Request: fold
Amino acid sequence: MDRNSPPPAPRRKRLTPVDIAIFAAVAALVVYTGYRVNAVLVYHWNWPRVLNFVLRYDPETGRYVANLLLYGLATTLRLALWGTVLATVIGIVMGYWRTVDNLTLRILSRSYVELIRNIPPLVFIFIFYFFISSQIFPALGLDDLDAEGPLVDNWLFAVLFGDPALLSNFLAGVLCLAMFEGAYVTEIVRAGIQAVGRGQWEAARAIGLSRTNVLRDVIMPQALRKILPPLAGQFITLIKDSSIVSLISIQELTFAATEVSSTTTKVFETWILVGAMYFVLCYSFALLFGWLERRAARSRR
Amino acid sequence: MPGRVAEPTPRDLRRREQAGSDVRMIWRRISQVAQAVLVFVLLGYLIWRGAAAMDYGWQWYRVEPFFYRVIDGELIWGPLVRGLIQTLKLAAIAGVIAILIGFVTAFARLSQSVSGRIIATCYLEAIRNTPLLVQLFLFYFVLAPIFGIDRFWSGILCLAFFEGSFAAEIIRGGIQGVARGQYEGADAIGLGVVDKYRFIIIPQSLPLILPPLTGLLISLIKHSAIVSVIAVSELTTAGLNLIADTFMAFEVWFLVAGLYLAVTLTLSICVSLFERSLNKSKR
Reply:
């Protein structure tokens, strides 16, 4: 056996008295919490009131329709999707710049990464949001977007971008998140490119490929295999980080939860429910990506 | 072979090449530096133009009292400095608790105990799959009233539990990085579990644990900004209050960002210098 192999995995044991004591302690904690809530705080639980904000019964059509929290969830997913796409674009450009000889590009990408990674996301988003709403959007002319136009008024647009009336609000969130996550994607891409052996560069140059072709046909396909798994993880991180943009009034799940908790005053139910929604969402994505990765690894063999 | 000119050896070739490339290198460096300066001047100009176009009345002359004031020859720290100290204090307390949580969780996951592994896994997955902001709201709006915790401590506990999950993975990785023979050796000389970890395993895993753990503590300073949402007094909260008072949004945000940047960058440079000296002494 290899001398440097990790320590042996602990043998599986059955429940010991210590385990039973620990479980009993946890159970006691749960009971004590329940006692504090019901007897000391005298909290009146009202789950239907809050669940009503997930699915609402519409008496006119006689069907259940999505309500505030589900709309928020959809916006969160859209934010994460477009944020990842945009962050990947930023990350590929900046990550490539991190590896080039050109000093200017290296300084630019390095300062971008260090700047973003060393200030709190909250502070960055506050500053950047001011900048977006005062500079970029007037320049893009988004505020006078025609909500009735054929480009906007169709179901595909609604699926991809949500309510046209909230488009500039949504895009502000996407831009903030993408700028922020882009720094992390940059490092993922840089690591992926640098993980491709030097020999690959040299061989590709030796057979006479131009720099662009080397990058496109030789380096990137190999780097992509190293980039994809952490990028999938970054997508989950983005779902979580997107909760921060609720503070600049982007109407995603956390923002909806704040509204629901203040209108219903059922604070406990709302936050427990929203926490559970995020958990289910992120955990299922984590399981899905883990499964895909294992399958890809198996097919490569 | 007489009469023939001696072929240059590879070493000669390399030397000639280097002499040529030195001159070229210097030229390239100069042009690159010039290019870099040009780009940054351009960027600065664009930002300045943007600010001018916004008609924003910069009032930098008003920011000095944010840091300190001298009243009757006595130095009084301003809100930003007090906020920074509060942030560091918050991060320090949360960091200590996070490391404790990390050690307990790591050992629980590595142990043979069923309950330990189940609880540790539940904790890690719960923290990993929910946003920090939602965790903060859960701590502040749900747990704090139930157990009667004040806002300062609910902020600290939330941060500690959040960072503790990362610390747990770092510590577990470090402990598992110790070679198998060390465990067997410790067992062979008859050490108990506690002594085995105390004298053999932990000391050897520390070089693997410490660098990422310091990185974690630095990012804790950054993450602590989020507790401004529940109005715990710290740097970001001080910034928000100043903006509410003075309406100088950009000046204050730039100062706050600059303070965070200064603290985290200084700390990371210190850590990397320390790490380098550690590696040098090992070699």
Summary: Chain A has a mean pLDDT of 86. Residues 18 and 24 of chain A are 10 Å apart (CA to CA). Chain A has two domains: 17-58, 70-254. The longest strand of chain A covers residues 55-58.
